Amino acid sequence: MYVAVKGGERAIDNAHAWLAEERRGDASVEELSVPQIREQLKLAVNRVMAEGSLYDPDLAALAIKQSRGDLIEAIFLIRAYRTTLPRFGGSVPIDTEAMACDRRVSATFKDAPGGQMLGPTFDYTHRLLDFKLAAEGDVPAAEEAPASTAQTPHIMSFLDREGLIQPETDSDATPPDLTRTPLELPATRDLRLQSLTRGDEGFILGMAYSTQRGYARNHAFVAELRIGVVPVEMDIPELGFAIEIGEIEVTECETVNQFQGSKTQPPQFTRGYGLVFGMSERKAISMALVDRALRWKELGEDNLGAPAQDEEFVLYHADNIQATGFLEHIKLPHYVDFQSELELIRKLRREAQANTAQQTDTSDASGGSLSGKMKEAAE
User: Fold this and answer.
1) Nearest to residue 195, comparing CAs of 80, 319, 82?
2) CB 318 within 8 A of CB 195
3) What are the C-alpha distances in Å from 166 to residues 19, 49, 159?
4) Contact by Cβ (8 Å): 44, 64
5) In what helix (H) or strand (E) does residue 323 lie, and over which residues does it extend?
6) How far apart are CA 171 and CA 149, in angstroms?
7) Whether 76 contacts 194, CB under 8 Å
8) In degrees rounded to 5, what are phi and psi of residue 324?
9) For a designed S-S bond to 210, which of 3, 16, 150, 215 qualifies (C-beta 3.0 to 4.6 A apart)?
């Protein structure tokens, strides 16, 4: 017999105290500070900011500390905090062409105007554990070059000039805000991009990988990947012009994808797009690939039945906070639900046993009659 169990306030308080103790770890080891996490676990901080939809490295670092390094829990904390913030208004669109780039690479044009910058990347490391880090050795300062004043136009602009890539149209319409209104399908492209940028990095990566393995069939080149700082400006009605209110670091990726053309359009390239807070190039590239796969309808392509083309599947399963909440709620008490399931199973088993017994009796009865008839026939 299963009965409901009451969780006492004292037990919950003790669980919280134990959690705090576990979070702190061995007290003889120096405690991590928020600045340490912000500066030395920057990629984790960036992911929390991107998927939490809030650009604040200090708060993201605090959330990582509070969550014991569980990034999804940290994202949950940031999103919850975000709901308490007042909203003053919207900024004007950021100009990524004016980005002060720390990293800028192109897989399509070797001699890109403005030059390519490798920046801080794992691409050329040997993936060997560096045991010198365990000795907490000092890191020598990297050489610094003078700040470049060269223009860094988007690589796509060169294809645009020749009409070789599908054009994009600007719009002054205010885009929907996924952080304030629930996702509704069918979603416009701007809403899809919002959903992808705050979607779980692992999920978006898996969807993007599936497109490279042949699902959704859209081979991509990275036209440009750039990471750097851009100013954020806001229109002030009293002043009549926009003023800079801060700077954010973003990663932007534009992909060039194949397109065979249609009855109304000549063969040309198409594009995928990704933009993420902070330095997060894996997420930005993944986002661009999935964005392109989801555009099959507007580009007049066939639906190949690939998961990455399924808007409902991708967008409704990309949010790791919703996924975590729905998944983890099953560990909470479900005593009443389980009792009803238990009673149902018992009832079905009783009925099945009764049917089996009835069939056995019928078989025995019919078998005896047949045996008697055979005996009579033999005599």
Assistant:
1) 319
2) yes
3) 53, 32, 9
4) yes
5) helix 320-328
6) 30
7) no
8) -65, -45
9) 215
